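Case study 2.
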Amino acid sequence: MAEHWFTTSNWTTTEERFQMALAGLNKSQCWYAPGGGDIDPQLYGEENKFSGGNFERDRREVELVKEILNQQVPLLGICRGHQVINVAAGGSLFQDIGINLGIKDHAHVNVKTCGEGFIGFLGKVLPANTYHHQAVKTLAPGWKIAALSPDNVIESIVSNDFPNVISVQWHPEWLADNLEQLTKFIEYLEERRIIDDSEES
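Prediction:
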């Protein structure tokens, strides 16, 4: 990715880096919230029963994503990053879909879209590679389901209030036979950057 792309997990390893990221946020950037480990359930108001997590690092990443959303900076969330977006916006997660929903062997090669946002624009069924033990439970206020897995787990969310965000549970960067999907995600967000005259000169 280009130099104006930044990865949330790289800027939340320490409090110092976190504060630098907050201070430097602007709409000429694009941010990427990547996959990774579990989010500490305390951050969405639950006792930790079936989850991992690193509270301080998770807290910083959730707070950074909150501010990215507040400032309408373009953001791509993938897997854990998708879950971070939902938590940052006020939603919650299933700590383990096998235990909470009785879903075993959650692994799918496509998702069905719901006609919402940019995800819905791409088609009724999208190739995916989704396998995860946590998932969006309560949608953040103002957000809608954009895609579901065949067993009806939420795989993408969208909000009209945050048109600069793409949030998906699957890994488009790992779709070796369909990298066009990731390219479309990146192009969509690139078009929503606001570049001032000083950056262009």
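The chain has seven helices and ten strands.
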